[in-house]
Write a structure and sequence with these properties.
It contains 6 helices and no strands. The chain has 117 residues and is mostly helical. It has one domain. The N and C termini lie far apart (40 Å).
Length: 117
């Protein structure tokens, strides 16, 4: 059996971690990204009116719609970024009280993860 290169092994782990972190289907995420709550949540990206999380959500949909063999190194870098973001924000535990309508949940959903799912 041929020995896998480090990058291939790393991509395998990133793929698994990404699939675990992103628990929203592409169609569900696309629908969410069209809402006012999604567009209004997060930090603006540079001079753009779009937030960083909203842009990330659009990239996640693109990645999820690709065949795995067609993923680029840039896709894997974004997938790694998504995994880190989701893990950090889940560790915060969210607000006391109404998590369903919180900025914490909305932010995570922009990154493809619904913590109430």
């Amino acid at each position: 059996m041929p020995v896998k290169r480090k990058r291939e092994l790393d991509h395998e782990q990133v793929w698994k971690d990404f699939r675990d972190a992103v628990n929203m289907a592409p169609a569900t995420l696309e629908k969410w990204l069209q809402t006012k709550e999604s567009r209004d949540n997060g930090w603006p990206e540079g001079d753009s009116r779009e937030t960083i999380g909203h842009h990330s959500g659009r990239r996640i949909v693109e990645i999820r719609q690709k065949k795995r063999a067609d993923l680029t190194n840039n896709d894997y870098e974004h997938m790694r970024k998504v995994v880190g973001y989701v893990h950090r924000h889940l560790a915060q535990g969210g607000p006391e009280g109404d998590k369903k309508h919180s900025a914490w949940r909305y932010s995570l959903m922009n990154w493809g993860h619904d913590p109430l799912k």
